[in-house]
Every structure is written in structure tokens, then in C-alpha cells.
Write a structure and sequence with these properties.
This protein has a 7-stranded parallel β-sheet with strand order 3-2-1-4-5-6-7, sandwiched between helices. Helix 1 crosses helix 6, helix 3 (about 65-80) packs parallel to helix 4 and helix 4 (about 100-130) runs parallel beside helix 5 (about 155-175). The protein contains 6 helices and 7 strands, in the order E-H-E-H-E-H-E-H-E-H-E-H-E. About 40% of the residues lie in helices and about 15% in strands. It is an alpha/beta fold.
């Protein structure tokens, strides 16, 4: 009997995180789902159990280091190991650089970067164990970054800086741990049709945005790669868009 792979998915109650969790459930993963609000998280878990796998929940605020540490420990207690860590929890606020509140930057850095670093650090021994089998797919860390971390956009200096740091962290993880079968990938999409992108609906038609299912499919594809294939960053754009702006 094949051993079921396990995944921890943050930001799993809505948007990109939920779509990824659903695809992983369909692929036969046992899951721990995490988000801040317990109610929507449990509703999501109930819906995903129809796929036949074990789906547990553990609410946590990614801005709180103690809760982040407890989340990692809870997943290991529930599943005994980890094969895939999906970091979809995130926050983003816009504002002009000259007047951007530093307390907002601190919170965004904690959620978008520090929690990723902390979860990776805490789960690294278990990820190394999953990555040790030379014939297996290895362990995967998949973080939702943003195209704004690759190409700057007016009014998003703080957000873009946190995502650029996240992309760099994924590259560093792969450099440091790839030989042990632990590879990290940052997914850096343009506008995805989620509630976080509602603020641009006046100039970008939601029907033409990248779909959450697109990001979920990329995640599943990464989970199927061998341990010898490292993909540090994937940029996803809408047709006709270019990366570099004049």
C-alpha cells in the first residue's frame, strides 16, 4: 500500500490557498489546513474530506510567532511528518512610500516573510526526512509570492519588498537544502481573481485575471517533479502582458 503524502497549507480557507488545498486533496494528500478564522477553515475541511483523505485544521495568525510555532508542531503531531509545505497566507496593503505606516510594514513582513522563514526552520528536519529517499519526489516548499516582487508597481513598495524577499528566501532554501531533497518554489503571479484583487476591478476585468485554479495546477505539477528538479521561481502573467514597464 502506497504511503500517503502529507501537506500543510496556510491561508487555506479562501482564495488561492483553498484552491490549492482542494487540488491536493483530489491528488490524495492528507492535509492540515490553517487560516486565522476557525469557522471558514472547518467548513473548507468538511468539503475536502469527500475526496477520502485525512483533513485536519489548525487555526493560526501568521503574524504571531508563538502561533506559527504551534502550527508546525500541531501538523507533525497530527501526521508524523511533512512532504509539502504550501505558504499561501499573506497580506497586502498599498500606499505611497513617503507616508506608508511603518507598523503596517512590520506586520506585513511578519506575515509574508517571517512566518515562512519560521515554519521552514521548524519543519526542516521533517522535510529533510521526506526528501531523503533518492527515488522519491522529495520535499516541496511552495510559497505564493507576487509579480510585484519581480517588477515594481506604483503604490506597492512595501508589499513588493516583502514578496521580493520571499522569492529570495525560496532561492536560498533550494540552494541550501536541494542536495537533501528539499526544494522551494515561489509562485509570482500577476493579478489573480480573488478578493485581494478587488481594488483593481475598475481597470482590470476579473474575467481576464489569472484564475486560482491556474495557481493550484502549478502547485500540483511542482509536487510531481522529482527531487532533482529545482524551480526557484515561476512568474505567471496574463496573455499580452510584459514584465518590464517603461
Amino acid at each position: 500500500m502506497a504511503v500517503r503524502r502529507t501537506a500543510l497549507v496556510t491561508g487555506a480557507s479562501r482564495g488561492i490557498g483553498r484552491a490549492i488545498a482542494e487540488r491536493l486533496a483530489e491528488e490524495g494528500f492528507d492535509l492540515t489546513l490553517s487560516a486565522r478564522a476557525d469557522g471558514p477553515l472547518k467548513d473548507t475541511a468538511d468539503q475536502l474530506r469527500v475526496h477520502g483523505g485525512r483533513v485536519e485544521t489548525a487555526s493560526a495568525d501568521m503574524a504571531d510567532p508563538e502561533q506559527v510555532e504551534a502550527l508546525a508542531d500541531t501538523h507533525l503531531q497530527l501526521h508524523g511528518g511533512i512532504d509539502v509545505l504550501v505558504l499561501a497566507a499573506g497580506m497586502g496593503t498599498g500606499g505611497e512610500l513617503a507616508a506608508y505606516p511603518l507598523h503596517k510594514l512590520d506586520t506585513m513582513m511578519a506575515v509574508n516573510l517571517r512566518s515562512t522563514f519560521q515554519l521552514t526552520q521548524r519543519l526542516l528536519p521533517a522535510l529533510r526526512t521526506a526528501g531523503a529517499a533518492p527515488s522519491g519526489p522529495g520535499a516541496k516548499i511552495i510559497a505564493i509570492a507576487s509579480i510585484t516582487g519581480v517588477v515594481s508597481e506604483p503604490g506597492l513598495a512595501a508589499y513588493g519588498a516583502t514578496k521580493a524577499a520571499l522569492i529570495s528566501l525560496c532561492e536560498s532554501i533550494t540552494t541550501a537544502e536541494g542536495a537533501r531533497g528539499v526544494n522551494a518554489t515561489a509562485l509570482s503571479p500577476g493579478y489573480v481573481d480573488t478578493d485581494m484583487a478587488a481594488w483593481v476591478h475598475d481597470r482590470v476585468d476579473p474575467a481576464t485575471m489569472i484564475q486560482v485554479s491556474d495557481i493550484a495546477e502549478l502547485t500540483v505539477a511542482l509536487c510531481r517533479l522529482s527531487r532533482y528538479a529545482a524551480v526557484p521561481n515561476i512568474v505567471v502573467t496574463r496573455p499580452g502582458e510584459t514584465l518590464w514597464r517603461a
